[in-house]
Each structure stands twice: as C-alpha cells, then as structure tokens.
TrEMBL record:
Keyword Transmembrane: yes
SMART domains xref list: PBPe (SM00079)
InterPro entries: ANF_lig-bd_rcpt, GABAb_receptor_plant_PBP1, Glu/Gly-bd, Ionotropic_Glu_rcpt, Iontro_rcpt_C, Iontropic_Glu_rcpt_pln, Peripla_BP_I
Listed transmembrane segments: 565-583, 625-649, 807-826
GO cellular component term of the entry, any: membrane
Organism: Lactuca virosa
Signal peptide feature range: 1-18
Function: Glutamate-gated receptor that probably acts as non-selective cation channel.
Protein name: Glutamate receptor
One annotated GO molecular function: ligand-gated monoatomic ion channel activity
Disulphide bridges: 735-789
Subcellular location: Membrane
Ranges where the Ionotropic glutamate receptor C-terminal domain occurs: 448-786
Length: 905
C-alpha cells in the first residue's frame, strides 16, 4: 500500500511539471537541455558588450565536443532595466523556468535584492559585474562574483595615491550600494596607510546637470585637488563635462576613476573625439586580463558577430564569457559525478488570496548546494586568465591596468596586483615567479633569492664556486640573519645579471619577485613596490674629485682680509691714534713736543696698539675709554686674522673647482656615476641635472681614468656614488682622490621582499640582534675594512677672506665712542675759552675803570670775538697753565669788584 502511494505521488509530480513546461529526471544522462538564466540591463554600456559575449559563450559551449556532451545549455534572458524592482521580477520569472544558475546581474544594488531570491531557491548566481565588496558576506552564500572585487580596486587606488605622497582625496560617487560600499572600502584602505578621504560628494543616479554643477562647485572649494570618481559607466561622463566647464580639468587637478571609464572607452573601437577631449589627463583603473591565444581568437570572433551594438568589447564582456564557461565546466563535472537535476516545491511559498504572483510555481533546486560547491572548486583558463576562487569566494590574482588618457588613446602606465602592488611588469610574470618559494615554513620549498651579479666592487657581492654559488659582505649578513630565525628557511641563490656590467637595481626590485639580497639601497620609490628589512649598512651619496697641490703663494698673508677690510682697518688705526692724541695732548707730556715728534707719536701709538705694545700712557678719562674700546676691537681683529691665516696655510693645501653638491649642480661639467645604481635617477629627477652630463662607469679602473682625464679630456669632473663604494675606491687608489662636501642623501642597504612578507619583519629583528652582539661589525671588518684616509680627506673648500661685513659692528661702536669723546672734549675746551680767557694782560693794566652802572668784567668774550688761531693757541697750552689762568682771572675779578665797591659815588 505504501509503495502504491509513493508511486502515485511521483506520477502527480511528473504531471504537474509537465503542465508547467518543466521536465525533471533522476538520471544525469537524460538531461539533454539545461536552462540557464541571464539577468542584466541590455541597453547599457556593460549590457551592450555582455549580451553578444554571453550568446557567443553559449554557442561555443554547445558546439564543444569535449564538454557537456549530449547536453545543451538553453539561455533565458531577462532585462533588469537598471531597476531593482524589475530585476527582482525578472529573477522570479527566471526561477519559474527551473534554471540551474543565473548569469548576472551587472548592478550591485540589484544583486543585493536577487541574492535573497537565489538563496531561498538554492540557485547559484554568477555575477560578472557586481563589484560591491559587501556581496562577499556570508549573508549571500549563493552569490558568486566572477569579476574583481572593489576592495582590491580601492587598494590599488590607495597605492597609486600614496605613490605620489598624496594624503587626502575627495570621493565623488553615486549614492547607491555600489557607490557607498566602494567608497567605504577606499576609506578603509587609505586609513591603513595613514591617509584619508577629506570629503565625500555623493549624488543620486540620474542627477541633473544643475545638481552635478552644484556638487562640483562645492568640491572645488575644498583644499584637496585629488578626486576619485566611482560612478556608473552610463552617466559618469557627465561629471567630466561639468568639470571641464568649471575649469577643473586643468593642471593642478588630479582625476582618478575606477574601472567604469575604461568600460566606456573600450566599448568603441574608434574613440569619440569629444569624449576624449573631456577626459584628457585622467588616470583610471581597468580590470587586467592576460594576453593569450584564446583571447585573440575571441577578438577575431567578435568582429564576425552580427547581432552586436558595439564595435568592440570591454573587460566585463570577457568576464561574462568566462562565467558561462565556468558554469559549463562545473555542470560537466557535476553531471559526470552522477548527480541529477531535480526541483521541488517549497511549502513556505504559497499564493495569497487574490494574488496573481503565483509564488507557488517557484521551486527549489535540490542539488543547488552541490552545484555551488562544484563551481567554487572549478578551475580553468579563460579569456581573463586563470579562473579560480580562494576561500573567500573571490577570484585569485586580482590585478588592474593603470591607464592614462592621453591624446586620442589610452596608455598603460603601470599595473597593480594584490601580491606585488604597483609595478611596471605585467602581473602574470610576477604571478609565476611568486609561486616559487612562498611556502618555505611548511613544505620546505627553497626560498629563491636573487643576487645581483656585479662587475665591480666584488667585495660586496659576487659569483663564487662555493655550494651557495655566491659570496660577499651582503651574503654573509643575510646568512647570519637567517641562521638567527626560529624556523628553518631553505634557500637557493640565483644570479641576476650577466656579470659584464652591473645590473639595474631598479629593474631588480621591479621585475624580480624573488627576494633580492645584495647591496640594494632603500629609496622612497622602491619602498612603494617592496618591503625592506631593517638597514644593515648606513649609506649616502658623496662626491669624489681629483685634486692637485696648491702652488705656494708669497702674498698669502694678505688673504685673511679683503682689500676693503685692510683699508678700513688701517684708517681706524690712524683715526684712533689721532683721537687719543687729541684727548691726551693737554694733560700728557708724552703727547707734547715739536710737530714732527707729535706726528711720529701718533703713528707709533696707532700701530703699536696692534700688538698691545704702546709705551705711552693715557691719563685722561676720555682717552682711556677710547683706548679700551679700541684694544677690544684690535683683539677681535687679531684673533680672526690669526685663525683665517692658519686655515689658509695649513688646511687649504689642495684645490678643486668642485666644492660640494651646490657647485656640482651649477657647473656644466660631466659627472660619473656607478652603472646600475639609483644615483643616475636621483641626479636627473631630484636634482634636475641634464642627462647629457651623466656618464655611467663600470668599475674602479674607469673611475680612476675618468677622474685623471678630467672634463676637458673626455673624463669627468667628479664622481657621485654611495659612501661604502667610495671607501672601497679610496682603498683601491690609496687615497689618491678626495671626498668633497658632505653626504647629501641619507639611506641604507636592506634586503627586499614582496609586500607584506612576514620574513621581512623577522629578518629585521635578526639584523638588529646582529648589530647588538657585534657580529654585524665583524662581518663588515672582514669584507670592507680599509686603511684610513682621514689624514688626507681634507675638505677642499676655498676659505673665504674676511670682509668688512664681518666687523662693521665693532668699527661702528668704536667710531661712535671716538666722536662722542671728541665732542665732549671740545665742548669743554670751548666753554673754558669763552668764559675764562682774559683780554690782553698788558691792556688790562691800563684800562679805564668802567662806570658803576656797568657790570664788572669777568673775562668773558663774545662768540664774535673768537679767533680760530687764538682757539688753537688756547688748546695747545697745558692744562696746568689753563688752571693757573683760571685762578688769576678769579683774583682779578675779585679785586676789580672790591675797588668798584670802595670808590665814592
């Protein structure tokens, strides 16, 4: 009875399925047709490329003799019309046809809605265009992203922004799930690198030109000029049309877009000139797809597709094509494993009274979970490269082309991948190399170590016949550091370069994914590509020049002072001598005598103060004040002269036209650099020295010959190289040449590893331990110890003569003091002369007594009666005579007063 009941129920199920147009079988061999759904907006930038690509993929699968033999895929397409609501309706309609999987959608917002439907019905959803990072959440188990994740794209933008040391950006994005969640991923990526989004400018999908104009006006008022535009490809160009009108597409503005812009440009074989004029200078990211034969074959097939609306295709078409093939490979594996395709009704889906939605017609794909697992474990090589998922259900090896819009075309300026970061190398070449040597802690695969095969300075690192195949200072440091690690690291060295010239260290860092070990200088640009360990050798660029002995100069004793300084100094000696003589003449007998003797005294006193050997004593207060100040000035001048002359006669024994980096830049002489090092790029890019002046040199012999020849004979005026190499060079030449100036860069040597390599951190700790226990110094002394050139490494900078500018303050103080003293002295003399000098004494004895009404005579004279000759005669008298005359005048005045009072009235 039970058997008959079960049989009856099975018949009813078959009948019901027949009525709805669906067939179900329990045997895999009976599935001649499998329904596959497709959901995307047909009339869109992405949809117009994707539609013919999916159709071509279905045809290629159905005509393939090696996959799904006896089973044909039936494509059922529904247009979502960029609407979440219509997309949901389309998804429900697809589910009525018992599809085993759905391809699409392209919109992240619609993908969020549809994911709930496929979760309920257990139908895998393979999206070639939904890049929203949040769709990877466990909330959407049946959502499979067959394109790149925006989280990786925002990491690429972050690395590009930080490459130029920009710390703030402004995000312009469409306000939906795709825009908001993408910019949120950008904010997270920037914050990890100590940068940030300074302002978020959002607008709704379908915003008018006026709204976009207001948005960009507000953006333009912000301080940052670096803009990241994350919008939909169908409306994104409106941003640049408005920006151009506002003058925001000129120099000084940086525009970076996500992969929507290349999706627009790649859809047309011939670029639209009006569009290209709008986006000149814009930098954009494009999903990287490897170049392969099957991709070239698809490009040829595309030209023969008739039902297509675009002359070319974008990367989303390639991912859609691979999505169909991914499903085909998974279904082939699924069916060959003996699995059947069956559907069953969900009792939870019931029609409500009066509803025409017919939810009860929707059925669950019973084997959906098994097919999902099969899809996630399927691996094959498609148009986009290797298709394989990691544990987070994301495609492995995410990579992007970095393109720049220039002229009428798109130029690739670099690449980004999640394992190498920014690079000028194609990501596939780095993928293959990276695969070797990454699992050394677990499976013992040797760590492949790249060693520069040098032509010169082989003490640093070079080829060897030992089992390791290499030797040198850098190798010993690396081996010592590795031996300190708490885990074994199997390693294998291989040489980079041919040994006939030094390899390019920039190419070594950029192109070799294996860990470079050697004299690799840590520079800012290189740290953006790889991770460096703690520096194990301090370094910096220095200048080496050829020098010659200076000829003896018989008049070198005059060099400490300039001509103006000598003239002013001599003039002040005479001036101070005259001032002191003037102040001392009336009081000091040593400053009196015949005119000839007085002139000799002035000269002798003046110049004897130079050696503090003047024999004349000063007795006046003003004279002593002036002399003290002058002796202080003489002390400073003597000390400065002695120091400058000592420097000229002892230090300045060598001559060179190049005195340091400033004189090297200002000259037009050729400069030698070591071949392969970063010095060439540093001089050209950072110091703006003409490339024609730079001459690469291979080894020490070329160094010597170039310096000896000099710039006039085809050599160089100076060599710029790192200090460790120059120290070895000085030992090689027995200190024949000299270092001038100071180190003008500060850097170091370190071991380079791929980004985020844990080995870089562990080796840094080991290097610090080597430094602390002294092993690092012992290794240095073993390979790089050298005879000291300190006795001859004299700076050859020209000693400048001391000018008047160095001492005018002292001369000013001394001169002011002299003039003040003279002023006080002559005022005192004039007062004495006006008040106390009488009329002629003989005339005084015979003068007539003045009437009583007149004022008694006191010896005063008016200014009109002053004679210069009388004033000079008065000054020439001794102070004692003047004082005696003062006393005599007082007595005369007193006597005259008494006589006048006693006379009868």
């Amino acid at each position: 009875m039970v058997i008959f009941l079960v049989f009856g129920m099975w018949v009813m199920v078959v009948v019901v399925k027949g009525k709805t147009g669906n067939t179900t079988s329990s045997s895999s061999r009976m599935h001649s047709v499998v329904n596959v759904g497709a959901l995307f907006t047909v009339n869109s930038v992405i949809g117009r490329s994707v539609k013919p690509a999916i159709a071509a993929a279905i045809d290629d699968v159905n005509s393939s003799p090696t996959i799904l033999v006896g089973t044909r895929l039936n494509l059922i397409l529904h247009d979502t019309n960029c609407s979440g609501f219509l997309g949901t309706i389309g998804a429900l309609q697809l589910m009525e046809n018992d599809v085993v999987a759905a391809i699409g959608p392209q919109s992240s917002g619609i993908a969020h809605v549809i994911s709930h439907v496929v979760n309920e019905l257990h139908v895998p959803l393979l999206s070639f265009g939904a890049t929203d990072p949040t769709l990877s959440a466990l909330e959407y188990p049946y959502f499979i992203r067959t394109t790149q994740n925006d989280y990786q794209q925002m990491s690429a933008i972050t690395d590009f922004v930080l490459h130029f040391d920009w710390k703030e950006v402004i995000a312009i994005f469409v306000d939906d799930d795709y825009g908001r969640n993408g910019i949120s991923a950008l904010s997270d990526a920037l914050s990890k690198k100590h940068a940030k989004i300074s302002y978020k400018a959002s607008f709704t999908s379908g915003a008018s030109e006026r709204e976009i104009t207001e948005l960009l006006i507000g953006v333009n008022l912000r301080e940052s000029r670096v803009y990241v535009v994350h919008v939909n490809p169908d409306s994104g160009l409106e941003i640049f049309a408005v920006a151009k009108k506002l003058g925001m597409m000129t120099s000084g503005y940086v525009w970076i877009t996500t992969d929507w812009l290349p999706a627009v440009l790649d859809s047309s074989e011939l670029p639209d000139l009006d569009t290209m004029n709008l986006i000149q200078g814009v930098v954009s990211l494009r999903q990287h797809t490897s170049s392969s034969d099957i991709k070239k074959s698809f490009e040829k097939k595309w030209k023969n597709i008739k039902d297509k609306e675009t002359s070319s295709f974008n990367s989303y078409a390639l991912y859609a094509y691979d999505s169909v093939w991914l499903l085909a490979h998974a279904l082939d594996k699924f069916l060959k494993s003996g699995n059947s395709i069956t559907f069953s009704y969900d009792p939870k889906l019931r029609d409500t009274n009066g509803s025409e939605l017919r939810l009860s017609e929707l059925r669950i794909f019973n084997e959906g979970e098994k097919l999902l697992e099969t899809i996630l474990t399927t691996t094959f090589v498609g148009l986009t490269g290797e298709v394989k998922f990691n544990e987070d259900k994301n495609l492995i090896h995410p990579a992007y082309d970095i393109v720049n819009i220039v002229g009428t075309g798109v130029r690739i300026i670099g690449y980004w991948s999640n394992h190498s970061g920014l690079s000028v190398a194609v990501p596939e070449s780095l993928d293959d190399q990276t695969a070797a040597g990454m699992g050394f802690p677990n499976n013992g695969t040797p760590l492949r170590v790249a060693v520069p095969y040098r032509y010169s300075y082989k003490e640093v690192v070079t080829k060897d016949k030992s089992p390791e195949g290499v030797r040198g200072y850098c190798i010993d440091v690396f081996e010592a550091a590795v031996n300190l690690l708490p885990y074994p690291v199997p390693r294998k060295y291989f040489l980079y370069g041919d040994g006939r010239r030094n390899p390019s260290y920039t190419n070594l860092v950029n192109s070799v994914a294996q860990k470079p070990v050697g004299d690799v200088t840590i520079t800012t640009n290189r740290t953006r590509i790889v991770d460096f360990t703690q520096p194990y050798m301090e370094s910096g660029l220095v200048i080496v020049v050829a020098v010659k002995e200076a000829k003896p100069q018989p008049w070198a004793f005059l060099k400490p002072f300039t001509i103006e300084m000598w003239l002013v100094t001599c003039g002040f000696f005479l001036f101070v001598g005259c001032v002191v003589w003037t102040l001392e003449h009336r009081l000091n007998h040593e400053f009196r005598g015949p005119p000839r003797q007085q002139i000799i005294t002035i000269f002798w006193f003046s110049f004897s103060t130079m050696f503090f050997s003047h024999r004349e004593n000063t007795v006046s207060t003003m004279g002593r004040f002036v002399l003290i100040l002058w002796l202080f000035v003489v002390l400073i001048i003597n000390s400065s002269y002695t120091a400058s002359l000592t420097s000229i006669l002892t230090v300045q024994q060598l001559t060179s036209r190049i005195e340091g980096i400033d004189s090297l830049i200002s000259s037009n002489d050729p400069i030698g650099v070591q071949d392969g090092t970063f010095a060439y790029n540093y001089l050209v890019r950072d110091l703006n020295i003409l490339e024609s002046r730079i001459k690469p040199l291979r080894d020490e012999v070329e160094y010597v010959n170039a310096l000896r020849l000099g710039p006039k004979a085809g050599g160089v005026a100076a060599i710029v190289d790192e200090l460790p190499y120059i120290e070895l060079f000085m030992r090689y030449t027995k200190c024949e040449f000299r270092i001038v100036g100071e180190e003008f860069t500060k850097s170091g040597w370190g071991f380079a590893f791929q980004r985020d390599s844990p080995l870089a951190v562990d080796l840094s700790t080991a290097i610090l331990q080597l430094s602390e226990n002294g092993d690092l110094q012992r290794i240095h002394d073993k390979w790089l110890s050298l005879a000291s050139c300190s006795s001859q490494t004299t700076q050859v900078e020209e000693t400048s003569s001391l000018s008047l500018n160095n001492f005018w303050g002292l001369f000013l103080i001394c001169g002011v003091a002299c003039f003040i003293s003279l002023g006080i002295f002559f005022c005192r003399i004039l007062c004495q002369y006006l008040r106390f000098i009488p009329h002629d004494e003989e005339a005084h004895d015979h003068e007539i007594v003045e009437p009583a009404s007149q004022t008694p005579r006191t010896g005063r004279r008016s200014l009109r009666g002053i004679s210069f000759k009388d004033l000079v005669d008065f000054y020439d008298r001794k102070e004692a005579e003047i004082k005696e005359m003062v006393r005599r005048n007082k007595r005369h005045a007193s006597r005259d007063s008494d006589e006048h009072n006693s006379s009868p009235s």
